Amino acid sequence: MEKIFDMVIVGGGPGGYTAALYGARAGLSVVLLERAFPGGQMVSASQIDNYPGLPDGIDGISLGDQMRKGAERFGARTVYADVTGLELSAEPKVVRTEGGSFLGRTVVIATGASPRGLGLEKEEALTGRGVSYCAACDGMFFRDKTVVVVGGGNSAVADALTLSRVARKVILVHRRDALRATKLYHAPLMEAPNVQILWNSQVEALLGQEKLHGVQVRDLISGKVETVECDGLFISIGRKPSTELVEGQVSLDAGGYIRAGEDTRTDLPGVFAVGDVRTTPVRQIVTAVADGAVAAHEVEKYLAMVRG
Ligand code: NAP
Predict the structure, then answer these.
(1) Nearest atom of ligand 1 to the alpha carbon of 156
(2) How many degrees, rounded to 5, is the angle at CA 129 between CA 127 and CA 131?
(3) Cβ neighbourhood burial of 143 (10 Å; 0-12, 13-18, 19+)
(4) Cβ-count burial of 128 within 10 angstroms (0-12 exposed, 13-18 middle, 19+ buried)?
(5) Is residue 236 a contact partner of residue 150, using CB atoms and an 8 Å limit?
(6) Which residues line ligand 1 (CB under 6 A)?
(7) Which one of the listed residues 6, 134, 231, 276 is annotated catalytic?
(8) Cα–Cα distances in Å, from 124 out to 150, 218, 236?
(9) pLDDT of 112-163, one tens digit each?
(10) Known catalytic residue: 230?
């Protein structure tokens, strides 16, 4: 008979691996499915300074790998596979991959979030060819070049400042006349000598075939469109939750995040959501790991209840 796991975890970020650690340590049988590298969104962070206990900080790849090792030490298994489908109302629940299915008494969704795109023609084709969603990962490729950053939130401003230390010129394009970013960032941005801000403006076309060489920017007040020559475009307009697999099976909030409270329970019994994918006011590594611990505890309670 096919093995039925106590917990099948989808996603190997900090939330997923903490659920795996706590679950395995509590004696549950745990399998975690991860598409690529352990760490989730942390993988693209070159320096993490807000995870306590690491006074010198750490890079995201190392922290992800340490989390994986910690969970595996207690018997959690990692399977590297793309999850292609979920049957969350079935008993046991089914998690499908191209290499086969995994059965679980419970499923923990830890799929996180991914960068939002502008939805422009050629955006996908030019990603990695001048278009990027991660200044910390790709900034170094633009030493002494001209880059455009889109957005007005903390990510966009932090990215513009990071890039201003590498690139020759940074042009921040924001659709309004005020930044959403916290005040703390305003002065350093305004004072950076190589940062120009295009207010009330929107990137509306990408120029280049094999490689990006410029963008078309519309002034939203005058309606005028100008060509801005650049080597790179960093799109920093927020993130969207990765919920394609659960849509129609569990309830989502207006922003598309899985409706689950602090107890990580979704509206479907035996299905839990942790980290950036769930409705929560703060999305940080520490909040994701807290969710993972809570989810394992809730899984134990749920299993005790269904087993009677
Ligand atoms: P965000 O705060 O939601 O900001 C997104 C920005 O992109 C906004 O300025 C928004 O414009 C703009 N935008 C959205 N859709 C757009 C579109 N289609 N075209 C053009 N512009 C568009 O997202 P975020 O900056 O990624 O931050 C996400 C969360 O992480 C926030 O809570 C943030 O505080 C936090 N964070 C914190 C730090 C830190 O150092 N403390 C660093 C990074 C992120 P409008 O302003 O007009 O809406």
Answers:
(1) 25
(2) 45
(3) exposed
(4) exposed
(5) yes
(6) 118, 150-156, 158, 175-176, 180, 236-239
(7) 134
(8) 16, 21, 15
(9) 998 899 999 999 999 999 999 988 778 989 999 999 999 999 889 999 999 9
(10) no
